[in-house]
Amino acid sequence: MPAMAREANDRLARQLARHQALHDPGREPRNQLRWLPEVRRWQAERLRRSFDRFLRDPSRRPAAEFFLCDVYGDHDFTRRDADIAKVLPMMRRLLPKKLLGTVADAIELGALTQSLDLSMAETLEALAPRRRKLDATLYAQAYREVGEEAERKRQVALIGKVGRGFGQALKLPGVAALLAFSRGPARLAGLSELQTFLERGFAAFESLGDVAGFVGEIERDEVAVSKRLFAGDDDPFRDGGGS
C-alpha cells in the first residue's frame, strides 16, 4: 500500500477509536452529566436558526440538512461508526483516498465536538448547578470558561473540510457507481447507516452547485461567532450565526 494511502487509513482508524472512546460512558463518565443533552439540544436548535437562509433555498437545503443531520447535529452516530469499524479493511481497499479522508474528517469533527460538549457540560455543572435550561448568556459564559480557542478553530476548519471533501468526491471517476453497486451488499451486511451517510452526502452536494461558496459562508459565520463569544460580545449570535 502506498505511504499516503496507508497514512489516510491509519488516521481513519485513530479517529474512529477516539470517537468511540469519547462516547463510551464506561471510559468517559462525563457522558452521564445531566447538562450534556441540553448542550447538544441548544446547539442544534441554534445551528438550525443560523442555517435558515440555506434551508429556505431549494438548491442549498439538501446540503444544509446533511450538515444538520449527518455531520454537525444532535444525533447519535454510534451505529454509523460501528459500521465503519466493521468494514474498515474493505473501505481501505475500495474507497478512493480522498473520500476516505473525508470520512475521517467527519469522524474527527464528531469526536472533537463531543470532547468540547463534554467540557461544556462539566463547566455548566459548576456554573449553574440548579439550572436546567441554557440561554445565550449562560452558553457564552460556559464557552469562554472552557476556552480551547485552538480546538474551536479546528472544529470550524473540519466543517469546511467535510463539505469540500464531498464536493471534490463528486468529481472522482467511479465513486457514484461504487456507491450504487454497494447498496445491496451493504444492506445485507447490516451496514445501512454507513451506506446512507455516504449516499446522502453525495445527493446533497450533487444538487448544491457552488460547494465552495456554501462552505465558505458557513466557515465565515462560525469564525465570526466564535470570535464574538470569546470577546464577550453582548450579542454573539446576531445575524443568525452559529458556532
Fill in the keyword field for this structure.
single chain, about 240 residues, mainly alpha, 11 helices
Average the pLDDT over all residues and give the rounded result: 81
Q: What Rg is obtained from the alpha carbons, in whole angstroms?
A: 18 Å
Return residue spans where pLDDT drops below 50 for at least 5 consecutive residues.
none
Beta fraction of the residues?
A: under 5%
SS-based structural class? Answer: mainly alpha
Topology diagram in text:
Layout: H1 3-23, H2 35-50, H3 52-55, H4 61-71, H5 78-94, H6 97-127, H7 136-146, H8 149-169, H9 175-188, H10 192-206, H11 211-231
Helix pairs in contact: 1-5, 1-6, 2-6, 4-10, 5-10, 6-7, 6-8, 8-10, 8-11, 9-10
Structure description:
Helix 2 packs across helix 6 (97-127). This protein has helices at residues 3-23, 35-50, 52-55, 61-71, 78-94, 97-127, 136-146, 149-169, 175-188, 192-206, 211-231. It has one domain (3-240). The mean pLDDT is 81. The chain is 75% helix and 0% strand. With 243 residues, it is mostly helical.
